[in-house]
Write a sequence for this structure.
């Protein structure tokens, strides 16, 4: 396999080392409705001027740019709305009697809002990458610790589906130079997918190993597998497939596209393997190790 440190094809992600960070001041956020009106009006105006009857031939990338901008605005405002729903549900729960039905209703709202928030965050990050607005804050960190934190994040999901998770990590730290939060986002996505597409009571295997100058993380599951014709496109944005006639929770295909972009932004690569439907799947992440 080619050296993953040479596979960083992403030129639209800004990278900051820990000792070279610059202080950034985020612009003040307006209200959600005002932002949607102003940005929506701006996009509509640009659409009218740039494609009165369709895009002009000399501007083939205009539609893509406008689409990326719309997705960024939509994701940002959706996050604000979801935060408001979450807060209101909590206040309503606190002000009502703690009846079993109220507890159950609040639990449903909380769980669904978390899932929607994660989906919106993934969509927003993918849009940031495409617009060159994502910054990686890289520092020397232990890959084993990052993966362990990811497991803790998805522990409830795995337990809820009664999966058996086995792990195999080196005894000593595996050092990488990375943005810890972004790598944790990668492995949370992979583990959630493994749990999501594995039948109740299935088996998920997670391992970390060294290979020369690289660190390798494998996530293997005994789930529904990936069809051969889908496998080459599994990391494409918005790819959906009929993975199984019994499985309706296919998803939007955002998470794996984001995972690939984040891994490549760290100078690494990711691959997927499956023997076919019903045969499980394995995702392999390869990252360059950091040497002092």
């Amino acid at each position: 396999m080619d050296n993953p440190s040479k596979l960083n094809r992403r030129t639209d992600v800004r990278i900051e080392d820990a000792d070279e960070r610059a202080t950034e001041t985020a612009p003040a956020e307006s209200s959600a409705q005002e932002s949607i009106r102003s940005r929506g009006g701006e996009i509509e105006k640009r659409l009218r001027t740039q494609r009165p009857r369709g895009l002009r031939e000399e501007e083939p990338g205009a539609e893509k740019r406008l689409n990326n901008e719309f997705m960024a605005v939509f994701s940002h405002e959706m996050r604000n709305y979801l935060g408001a729903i979450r807060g209101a549900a909590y206040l309503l729960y606190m002000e009502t009697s703690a009846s079993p039905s109220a507890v159950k209703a609040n639990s449903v709202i909380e769980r669904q809002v978390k899932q929607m928030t994660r989906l919106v965050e993934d969509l927003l990050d993918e849009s940031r990458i495409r617009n060159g607005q994502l910054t990686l804050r890289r520092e020397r960190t232990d890959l084993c610790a990052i993966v362990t934190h990811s497991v803790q994040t998805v522990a409830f999901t795995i337990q809820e589906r009664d999966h058996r998770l086995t792990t195999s990590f080196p005894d000593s730290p595996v050092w990488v130079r990375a943005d810890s939060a972004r790598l944790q986002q990668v492995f949370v996505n992979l583990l959630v997918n493994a749990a999501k597409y594995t039948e109740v009571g299935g088996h998920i295997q997670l391992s970390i190993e060294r290979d020369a100058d690289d660190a390798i993380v494998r996530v293997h599951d005994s789930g529904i597998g990936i069809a051969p014709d889908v496998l080459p496109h599994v990391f494409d944005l918005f790819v959906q497939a009929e993975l199984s006639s019994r499985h309706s929770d296919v998803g939007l295909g955002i998470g794996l596209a984001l995972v690939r972009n984040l891994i490549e932004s760290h100078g690494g690569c990711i691959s997927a393997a499956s023997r076919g439907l019903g045969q499980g799947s394995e995702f392999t992440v390869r990252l360059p190790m950091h040497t002092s």
Q: What stands out?
A: The helical segments are 32-50, 62-95, 100-130, 143-160, 180-196, 255-265. Strands lie at 13-17, 134-142, 164-168, 175-178, 203-211, 214-221, 269-273, 281-288. The longest helix spans residues 62-95.
